[in-house]
Design brief:
Strand content: under 5%
Structural class: mainly alpha
Distance between the termini: 37 Å
Number of strands: 5
Number of helices: 20
Shape: globular
Strand order of the largest sheet: 1-2-3
Order of helices and strands: HHEEHEHHHHHHHHHHHHHHHEEHH
Length: 517
C-alpha cells in the first residue's frame, strides 16, 4: 500500500513538472527567438549586404519611378534617380574591413544624390514596392523597420507551418531551417536584400507543401494557403527564387505525393508554372542568356571543370566561407565554418538512417539543382567562375534539401544527451561568433593581425565609432542577449520536440488530435 502511494505521488509530481515545464519552454522559446531576431536586425548598419546601394535606392525609388515622388535627371544620356545620399552611399566602408560605418556621418538624409544604381527591370515587381511603404525621412529608422518586417514574415510563415503540421513535419521543418540558416541565412533574412524573401519564401513554400501532403482536413487546406503566400515572396524577390518554386515542388511531390493528393499536385503545378514564367520574364534571365563569341568551347570546358572542383567550397559558403556578412568583406573565423560543417555532416548521416527510393530521387533532384544551376550560370560571360556567383543565390534550396533528407529519419530517433548538448553548443557558438564578428566589423572595424588575418576585437564597447541612434542597448549587451537567446531558444525547441516525441512513443493509441497537436 505504501509503495503504491509513493509511486502515485511520484507520477503526480512528474505530471505536474511536465505540465509546468512546457508553457515555460514555450515562453523561453518565444523570448529567445525575439532576442536572436533583434540581434541580427541591428548587427549591421544600412547598406551592409551586397549591392545595398542598389537595393536601398530601388526601395526609395521603385518602379514606376514617376509615382514615387523621386526626382530624376539625365547624365551623359543615362537616367539617374534622386535618392537620399545615405542610401546610395550607405556602404561607404565596403571592402575595407578595418573601417567602421562611421563614414556615413559625412552624409545627411536631407541631401539628395543622383544614382543610376536602381531597379529598372532586373528584379521582379514586389520586394521594392512593398518596402517603399515603410520609407520615411530617417533612413536608418526606415531600414530597421523594414528588416524587422522581413524577420516577422519569416517567423510567421515558419511558425504557421510548424503549428499546422504533424510532429514529424514540424521536427524536420525546425531542424532544416536551423541548420540551413545559421548563420548566413539569418543575416540575410534580417537584411534589406531581396535574398531575404528568397530564402524565407522558398523554404516556407517547400515546408508548407510537405506539411499539406501529410495533413488532413482544414489543416491541409490552410497549409496550401501558406504555400501560396510563401510563393508570392519568391515571385516578388528574385527571378531564380521564382524558379526555385518549381524545384521545391518537384522535390516535395516526388517525396510524398500520392494519388489522393491531386489538389496539392494541382496547386504546386500552377505555382511552378507561374514561377517559371516570372523567371523567364525577369531581367536576370536575360542577363544570363547573353552569349559571347570570344569565349571558346575549350575555355568554357576549362571553367566548368574548375567550377566543379570548387563546389565543396561553394557549399561551405552557406556557413560563411568566403561569403561572410557585409559585401563578403567580413571574414568569419575558420572554426565557425568547421563547426557548422560538423553539424551539417552529422545531420547528413542522421538523415541517412532511412533512405527510400522516393527520398533518394527527391534529394538528388534538389541537390542537382543546387549544384547544377550555379555551374550552368557561372560560365563566361555571365560570371568568370563560380567564385563570382554568391553562395547566397543557391542558399534558398538548402533548407528544402535538408527537409527532404530529414523526412522519416525521426521515426528511428535515438539521440543521446551528449549528442544533443554538442549540437546545441556547436550551433550556438557558430551563431554567437558570426554575430560578434559582424557587429565588430561595423562598430569599430576588424584588426589585421600578421599571420592570422582579420580578427574581431573582443570588447565590442571598447571603441564605438558607429552605433544605431537611440539604441538603448550597447553593442556588447545586444550581442550577449542575442547569443544567449539563440542558445535558450534552441534548447527549448529541442526539449519541446523530444518531450512530445517521448509522450507519443509511450502512448499505444494516439488520437488524431495528438498527431497534429
Amino acid at each position: 500500500m505504501a509503495r503504491a502511494l509513493v509511486d502515485h505521488l511520484a507520477q503526480a509530481r512528474d505530471r505536474f513538472v511536465s505540465t509546468a515545464a512546457r508553457p515555460l519552454a514555450f515562453i523561453i522559446l518565444a523570448l529567445g527567438i525575439l532576442a536572436v531576431a533583434t540581434g541580427w536586425i541591428f548587427a549591421s548598419p544600412p547598406g551592409a549586404s551586397p549591392d545595398d546601394d542598389y537595393h536601398l535606392v530601388s526601395t526609395w525609388c521603385p518602379r514606376p519611378i514617376e509615382s514615387t515622388g523621386c526626382g530624376t535627371t539625365t547624365i551623359d544620356g543615362d537616367l539617374y534617380v534622386m535618392a537620399p545620399v545615405t542610401t546610395s552611399h550607405a556602404p561607404c566602408e565596403a571592402f575595407k574591413p578595418d573601417r567602421s560605418h562611421a563614414c556615413i556621418k559625412e552624409y545627411s538624409d536631407d541631401t539628395m544624390f543622383p544614382s543610376n544604381r536602381y531597379n529598372d527591370g532586373q528584379y521582379p515587381y514586389g520586394f521594392y514596392q512593398f518596402h517603399h511603404l515603410f520609407v520615411g525621412h530617417n533612413v536608418e529608422h526606415s531600414v530597421w523597420i523594414m528588416r524587422a518586417i522581413n524577420v516577422g514574415i519569416a517567423i510567421a510563415l515558419i511558425g504557421a507551418v510548424c503549428a499546422l503540421s504533424t510532429r514529424e513535419v514540424r521536427r524536420a521543418t525546425a531542424l532544416a531551417a536551423l541548420i540551413a540558416w545559421t548563420p548566413i541565412g539569418l543575416y540575410f533574412i534580417a537584411s534589406n536584400n531581396p535574398s531575404s524573401w528568397a530564402i524565407t519564401g522558398v523554404f516556407a513554400y517547400g515546408a508548407a507543401l510537405y506539411g499539406a501532403l501529410n495533413a488532413q482536413g482544414w489543416r491541409r487546406w490552410t497549409l496550401l494557403g501558406v504555400a501560396g503566400l510563401a510563393s508570392l515572396l519568391c515571385y516578388g524577390s528574385r527571378g531564380d527564387a521564382a524558379f526555385y518554386v518549381f524545384v521545391a515542388s518537384l522535390g516535395i511531390l516526388i517525396l510524398a505525393a500520392r494519388r489522393r493528393h491531386l489538389p496539392e499536385i494541382g496547386v504546386a503545378s500552377l505555382l511552378s508554372v507561374i514561377g517559371i514564367w516570372c523567371m523567364l520574364s525577369s531581367g536576370q534571365s536575360g542577363h544570363i542568356a547573353q552569349s559571347d563569341a570570344s569565349v571558346t568551347l575549350h575555355e568554357r570546358i576549362e571553367v566548368a571543370i574548375m567550377n566543379i572542383r570548387y563546389l565543396p567550397e561553394y557549399f561551405a559558403g552557406f556557413i560563411g566561407l568566403y561569403s561572410g556578412p557585409g559585401w563578403r568583406d567580413t571574414p568569419l573565423p575558420g572554426y565557425t565554418t568547421i563547426l557548422g560543417l560538423l553539424v551539417l555532416g552529422a545531420v547528413l548521416f542522421y538523415g541517412a538512417r532511412t533512405v527510400s527510393l522516393r527520398k533518394a530521387l527527391a534529394a538528388f533532384m534538389v541537390f542537382g539543382a543546387m549544384a547544377g544551376i550555379p555551374l550552368l550560370i557561372a560560365t563566361p560571360p555571365t560570371f568568370p567562375n563560380l567564385g563570382g556567383y554568391h553562395s547566397r543565390y543557391a542558399l534558398p534550396l538548402l533548407g528544402t534539401w535538408l527537409l527532404i533528407w530529414l523526412s522519416s529519419a525521426f521515426k528511428k530517433s535515438s539521440l543521446t544527451r551528449g549528442q544533443i548538448v554538442m549540437f546545441v553548443f556547436f550551433l550556438s557558438v557558430v551563431d554567437a561568433v558570426a554575430m560578434h564578428t559582424t557587429i565588430a566589423r561595423f562598430v569599430r572595424g576588424l584588426l589585421s593581425i600578421r599571420h592570422l588575418g582579420w580578427i574581431a576585437p573582443g570588447n565590442l564597447n571598447g571603441d564605438i565609432q558607429w552605433w544605431w541612434a537611440d539604441m538603448p542597448l550597447s553593442p556588447m549587451a545586444l550581442w550577449g542577449l542575442a547569443s544567449l537567446g539563440y542558445a535558450l531558444a534552441l534548447a527549448s525547441a529541442i526539449y519541446l520536440l523530444r518531450n512530445r516525441q517521448v509522450e507519443a512513443s509511450a502512448s499505444t493509441t494516439p488520437t488524431e488530435e495528438e498527431e497534429t497537436a
